[in-house]
Design a protein that fits this description.
It contains 4 helices and 9 strands, in the order αβαββββββββαα. It has about 160 residues and is of the alpha+beta class. The strands form 2 sheets. The protein has a 5-stranded mixed beta sheet, covered by helices on one side. A 4-stranded mixed beta sheet has the order 2-1-4-7. The termini are far apart.
Length: about 160
């Protein structure tokens, strides 16, 4: 009985001590056969919901593809995301909120993305203002991605 009790305590401590976080994959796609420019350069998926503490690996940061946070489209106090080709391409999202992402070169073709961390939209108003920092061509797509988050999570 004593051993069973110790085993239960050890199991309870282990369950509480191991918090798991997921690694999500976002591909940076270049499709020369795409029927329109906004499908030629894109993040797949271009809208992602993750939990606080999850990581995202951006595949395809080669050639001229980059991953950058859009000015005014990250929660306050978060370090800007800036992944250049051939650099480490995993980002841990440890602060909840809305993150706007783009490829510096190809965002003019619609290569933008929104990541919602923890279902938290506390910086949505700021993110909406930050849409002005992407190319005119990408603004409509970025607003549609923000609409998806707002429709799902409301005005939290």
């Amino acid at each position: 009985m004593k051993y069973l009790y110790l085993l239960l305590i050890a199991f309870a401590m282990n369950v509480n001590a191991t918090e798991t976080h997921e690694l999500k994959i976002v591909k940076q796609v270049y499709d020369i056969n795409a029927k329109s420019p906004d499908l030629m350069y894109q993040f797949v998926p271009d809208y992602l919901e993750i939990n606080t503490g999850d990581s995202v690996k951006f595949l395809g940061t080669v050639g001229r593809h980059t991953v950058h946070s859009v000015r005014d489209m990250i929660p306050e106090g978060v370090k800007k995301i800036a992944i250049m080709p051939r650099q480490p391409n995993v980002v841990v999202f440890d602060k909840p909120g809305v993150y706007g992402i783009n490829c510096k070169l190809h965002q003019r073709h619609g290569m933008v993305s929104v990541i919602v961390v923890g279902g938290d939209l506390h910086n949505m108003e700021q993110a909406r203002v930050g849409v002005k920092w992407v190319s005119p061509y990408s603004r409509g797509k970025m607003n549609k991605l923000l609409d998806i988050a707002q429709n799902k999570f409301g005005d939290k």
